[in-house]
Amino acid sequence: MTPIRVFVSHASEDEDVLAAIHSAVRRSLPNARVLNVDRHLLPGKAIDAGLTGLIETSRVFVHVSSLASRQSGWVAQEVEFARAREQLGQIYFVTLLADADGSTDGELDSSRKYLRYDRDQERALGELVEAIARVAPSALISPVDSRVISYRRTASALFLALVTTMLLVGANIGINSPTAVGWLHLLQALIIAYLAVDIHIVRQKTTRDPRSTRVLSMWLWVWISWMTLYVLRFVDFQYPEVTLLGVSYPRFFNHLAGVPSVLGTVFVYFTYLRLDVREEEHYDDAGWNQYAFPVATTALLSGFYLLLAFGIVRSSFWPDLIKSIWLGLAISLVGGRLSSRLINAPRLPVTFFYMYGLLQMLFPIFQTSSAALPEIVPFTHYGYRLALLAGKTLLADVLAWAVLTRRLEFFLMRMEPLTANVDEEFRRWSDPDVSPPLTGRAMGRGERTVGV
Predict the structure, then answer these.
(1) Residues 334, 411 within the same domain
(2) Residues 130, 93: one domain?
(3) Is residue 430 situated within a structural domain?
């Protein structure tokens, strides 16, 4: 997004006023740029042409009126040119009274707005910022935020379009139709593919921090795994039975889809480990390996789904339940990291992360119709899948937002030194030979703590 240009016309004696304007605008309007002749006129360019060029490309003209500026021919020339553009509606003209010399209330033009910097500097600067924001609301949006807004608009539009298509397919063909369910899996695969491409673009274009890149790379593998899962389920509805070496295997691809489903789960958990910036020595000192459990569980569940695909075992309920519980916990752990004050993600999406994690844990139950749960019908399955897909999309959206705004990079950078010495600090605090520092009321009363 192109920055909003604010031209300040002032005398050289009013550099302190220019500095105050620059500080106020920069602090409150991240997408505004303050210009003046002394700092922004290009060397070697004719003064008249350079002066008019700066004013022509500015949206707001601020005239710093003072005794020195009223005696300056250059300021008079700038004001004359700006007033001419004001008559054409091409620029917004603001006068800032820096002193009272020669500008008594009776001499001021009552049809114009004057900001009395000479009487109350903070109020005048605040009114100037408000005036610029009213004229150019986009000045309130930083270039980084504009990229985020553009990304979220695109993601939301595509998501709504694909979900609408899913609803139409489900309504027209029928929820109970295997063909409808198959096409719904394909549409979900397309949504996941879009999110994967988007994360790849974000990783390539917006981050230079290697730690953020590793987090996004791991999350990219999550999307690739889930996309493979939905593609295999779509293929299963096209080929419900596969013959290999003369043996028929019903629902072969559907059972085989359990393998990328498990891989997606472990990659979500590894994403959490990437966000957990503690050093490897922390886990070694604790006596366990942080990768042993996920790798072993992945191998066992993947092996079970392969046995299921070849008909050696019959039921997948318990592996599905274990995998879903693990995935729900991993999603909640990632959501917990994104809720850190260093990232400061919006509370409502973070709340939905935990709800999505809970829904994911119960997924196998809602895919099973039984006499004990007569409310679970095919339409319930359909709505449940849409809810899980919405959770995946929201998680991708917030993760991309954290990267584009560099909040993820800030989180990883600040958390590393904060956690590097936590074990040593805890040892010092809990060591019976070391007295902890005075805190709270004990410090106020001058009491002394004794190690016990």
Answers:
(1) yes
(2) yes
(3) no
Q: Are residues 88 and 211 in the same domain?
A: no
How far is the C-alpha of 259 from the C-alpha of 236, rounded, in Å?
14
Domain boundary among 112, 140, 168: 140
Residue 250 sits in the same domain as residue 329: yes
With 0.85 as the threshold, say if the pTM is over it: no
Going residue by residue through the chain (452 aa), what tens digit of pLDDT does each one get?
567 889 999 888 888 998 999 888 887 777 788 887 666 454 444 456 667 778 888 889 999 998 888 888 888 888 988 888 888 888 889 899 988 654 544 455 555 668 888 888 888 888 888 888 888 765 555 555 555 555 555 656 666 666 666 666 555 555 555 566 677 777 778 878 877 877 777 677 665 667 778 888 888 899 899 999 989 988 888 888 888 777 778 888 888 999 999 999 999 998 888 887 665 555 455 445 677 888 888 999 999 999 988 888 888 888 888 999 999 999 999 988 888 888 878 778 888 888 889 988 988 877 655 544 566 666 667 777 777 877 887 787 788 778 777 788 788 877 777 776 776 777 777 776 655 554 444 444 444 333 33
Q: What is the CB neighbour count within 10 angstroms for residue 144?
A: 16
The partner residues of 63 in beta bridges, in order of sequence, read 9, 95
Which one of 140, 158, 187 terminates a domain? 140
For residue 1, give the amino acid letter. M
Q: Are 289 and 176 within one domain?
A: yes
Which domain covers residue 250, as residue numbers?
A: 143-420
Closest CA to 141 of 345, 1, 344, 342: 1
Between CA 192 and CA 159 the distance in angstroms is 10
Rounded-to-integer distance, Cα 224 and Cα 184, Å:
18
Q: Compute CA distances 221 → 19, 156, 227, 267, 415, whole Å.
A: 49, 22, 10, 7, 24
68: domain CATH number is 3.40.50.10140
Same domain, 413 and 394: yes
425 assigned to some structural domain: no
Based on the fold, state whether residues 97 and 155 are members of the same structural domain: no
**How much is the CA Rg of the chain, to the nearest whole Å?**
32
CA distances in angstroms from 55 to 73, 93, 98, listed in the order given: 16, 11, 21
